[in-house]
Amino acid sequence: MMEKIRSKLGQEEMVGFAIIMVIVFVIMLVFLGFSMSNSDKEAVESYESQSFVQSMLAYTTPCDDYKETYLKTRDLILKCDNNATCANGNSSCEILVTTLRGILMESWNVEGNSSIKGYSLKIGGEEKELVSLERGNVTRNSKGYVEPVPRGGKTVYVSFVAYY
Amino acid sequence: MKSKKSQMKIQQTAFMLLAVTLFFALVGLAFVSFQLSGVKESATELQEKNARLTISKLANSPEFTCGEAFGTKGVSCVDMDKVMKLKENEATYKGFWGVSEISVRRIYPKTTGTVVCTPSKYPNCNVIEMRVGGRGGTFIPNYVSLCRKGVENGELYNKCEMGLLMVSYEDRQ
Which of A25, A53, A122, B130 has the greatest number of C-beta atoms within 10 Å? Predict the structure, then answer.
């Protein structure tokens, strides 16, 4: 009788051990799958965001000033910050937003199977936000760049983040 | 009875050995995958560094860069007028820059379709095919400022647009 009970206990131990092994195996598989899926190449590199922001700030906008020269985005941001108008009477902030929206639309494709899922562009200083343009979805993976635009003791920050 | 007990013991030992082996194999597999992901990360970092260096080298080479002519100091800026002139003499630069293909594409303001730049079409075009005919390979684009001298009412002014400088270099086996 005792022998039978011992044998049964041994069998139960084995079954218990087998169950533990199966659980450990499943956990390992999940861990492996997760680590493999995370090791894909990143879609956006930070230098891409940096070069994009810097090129965008150098873009010649259709806003002219009284010196009969067209302003760069960098100068237009400061003009917009001062609520000034262009020489032709157009609002500097309106031209700024239209220009930036056009540049973003043509530069970052967030539709369909694109590796870029969304982006966000914010321009503003310590007191107020001048521009906030967003498109697509915000994901946990992102690369971005912040460029300070200083002028006369004030600094306006241009912040761009691409989500992938 | 004793024989059955021994068989049971042998079975238990065999199962235990099998389970321990499986366990260590899994731990080993996890370790290898962890190491491999580190290698992949390093490779990606190296590729990024190489790409950045290639584009930066090209955009800042005297043949491409705007210098301070357009007030774009510190920005990756390509002088379109210079590149158009350089395109005509590209053959003399064979083997230079270490890339197999170079092209410059204007992305904003948008142009419908692809209009390859020729001396007669320039600047009403959006692609300068500087070097063509490579055998493929890793393709790297990067945002640059494309600057040129524009004319309005008979006066020259600086015009900078958004573009991509694209290079491809052949993969090393």
Answer: B130
Amino acid at B94: K
Which residues fall within 8 angstroms of residue B70, CB to CB, at 6 or more apart? A58, B77, B79, B145, B147, B158, B160
Q: Is the ipTM of this complex over 0.85?
A: no
Buried b (16+ CB within 10 A) or exposed e, A86-124: beeeebbbebbbebbeebbeebbebeeeeebbbbbbbbb
Give phi and psi for A121, each to the nearest 5. -125, 120
Query: Residue A148: which residues within 8 A CB-CB, separation 6 or more?
Result: A155, A156, A157, A158
Question: Under 8 Å CB-to-CB from B58, ≥6 apart: which residues?
Answer: B64, B97, B99, B102, B165, B167
Q: Measuring CA to CA, which residue among B97, B69, B37 is closest to residue A39?
A: B37
**CA distance linking residue A71 with residue A91, whole number of Å:** 13
CB-nearest partner of A28 from B30, B76, B144:
B30
Q: Which of A:71-130 have CB within 8 Å of B?
A: 72, 102-103, 106-107
Name the residue among B12, B26, B75 with its Cβ closest to that of A25.
B26
Query: pTM for this structure?
Result: 0.72
- CB within 8 Å of chain A, chain B residues 114-173: 142-145, 147, 155, 157-163
Residuewise pLDDT in 10s, chain B (173 residues): 667 788 888 888 888 888 888 888 888 888 888 788 778 777 767 766 776 677 778 888 888 998 887 877 778 889 999 999 988 888 888 778 777 888 899 999 988 889 999 999 988 999 998 888 766 666 778 899 999 998 888 888 889 999 999 887 665 44
Q: Cα separation of A110 and A135, whole Å?
A: 8
